[in-house]
Give the backbone structure.
Amino acid sequence: MPSPDSAERLTPVAVARLRGETLTELPADLYIPPDALEVCLEDFEGPLDLLLYLIRRQNLDILDIPIAEVTRQYLGYIEMMRQMRLELAAEYLLMAAWLAEIKSRMLLPRPPVVEGEGEEDPRQRLVERLLEYEKLARAAETLDALPRAGRDVHEALAEPPPLDKARPLPEVSLDELVSALREALSRAALVEHHHIQREALSVRARMSEILARLADCPQGCAFQGLLEPGQGRRGVVVSFLAVLELLKAELVRAVQDRAFDPIHLHAVTGGA
Amino acid sequence: MSTPEGIDNILEAVLLAAGEPVSIERLLEVFADEGIDRATLRDALARLQERYSGRGIELYESAGGWRIRVRAAMAPWVARLWPSSPPRYSRAVLETLALIAWRQPITRSEIEAVRGVSVNAQIVRTLQERGWIHVVGHKEAPGRPALYATTRRFLDDFGLRRLEDLPSWTPPEA
Amino acid sequence: MSTPEGIDNILEAVLLAAGEPVSIERLLEVFADEGIDRATLRDALARLQERYSGRGIELYESAGGWRIRVRAAMAPWVARLWPSSPPRYSRAVLETLALIAWRQPITRSEIEAVRGVSVNAQIVRTLQERGWIHVVGHKEAPGRPALYATTRRFLDDFGLRRLEDLPSWTPPEA
């Protein structure tokens, strides 16, 4: 384990911070360009991106990569990411293994090459992938630089004249709506693992109604008035639950001047 | 760009990009760096109005502000643009509407959390313009995000008497 | 209304009301009663283009057809109309889109092979929802993976008439 002292030596400027955590331990022999710590390690788009960064950073020749040196630095970064407990995608480890393999193959004595069918340089495939990735990164930048609708250029739009035959509006059936909901929720369940409980719709519906009513009366509404007896017992309970939910979500405020006075509800207004 | 013609051209571009009425105050903000006052702006609007005389478009002021519109006389030609079969809403619009219907009142970021993608302003506007959703309040949270709910009109259009009549959905992974 | 100027004015009004690219065929429909042919229409489009020279708007042809749009030079003023800035896309999204654009049709695992990392489902969905990519088929391979390609909307939004207009996939200069 490198000591904090070695980190000091490498980066006398300051300690790097990442996700609020102070970075004090760095692999002692890791080459760190002066401004490298500004590069948030999480920002790399994968192992190819990181490798390219290491190579370009030091003006190394991509066609003749000093594989031992680059491997050492790559592993150094991986180690650093580990120490910062960054979640390491499997691809990074796969690349580490690949680099190690290339390195060991480079160390093996090469058999004499027969003219015409040259033994492939073990780095060949890696170089190809790096060049291809670099082209891609370039292309992505080019694409981003194109004038884009909504960002650089805008559709010119005038209000259409009143048309005799109204422009037909899309029709939606209830079935379509239900399937859209199911799809959205099943995806959420898949992606987030978060538990989607089925809340009583009636309570949520009443929450909307109460909010809409409160929006109409800036002076606030009497709590009693919201619990219309005409709703029946179940209705009153639903309204009551809706008010509690709204209070919990801090969407409404309840005001009571003195004990036993009527309670008033106010919408928590946009500007206030 | 601060020649009168330069101002007119920016004004025209901005009004056409807005696609909605733009108030004088908003226009003054657009020209904040040029230090243009109300009177200069009014002059420019008048010149633009003049520019469109005899054309198929016109500049007019409504309650919401200034807007460029196509003259009523152009209606026969414009009408031929639109297909007679109704267009369809995108998946994104339908899912957003469904989430608002079943989980109202709900904020945009709550919808985004479930859908896993950002809900762009256009989607919300489409549903608002259709009269199916409205803002019923603002949440006590940074940015005070709007809370959306469905409208009376939504119930009418879907043949529902009240929200409780929405069909129940079976939870996924059932 | 069949004077050249009358035609130009109708054309302008129709394109501004459309707010989306309009193909030549659709424009010919608009002028069906006037019995205007393709050549006359092309002349009118050229005159309209001329009318907008030096202005903040321009007449432009992209994949979907002709449209009037606000010039990029006007973006700083237009941006002041709206408080929120348009979405910026991450490198992951842009790289995925670039591969689909240049190498279409392409599967997700082919994208992953070039990028060296897995492409998460959200990236693909973001691009689909933006209307920039769609599934055009399935590859005859285990699992029958979806093949992605760019849409006409992609071309329109990036101001391209066809895919060949994309800048070449050039090797980085040494």
Chain C is about 45% helix and 15% strand. Residues 26 and 164 of chain C are 24 Å apart (CA to CA). The longest strand of chain C covers residues 57-62. Strands of chain C lie at 57-62, 65-70, 133-138, 146-150.
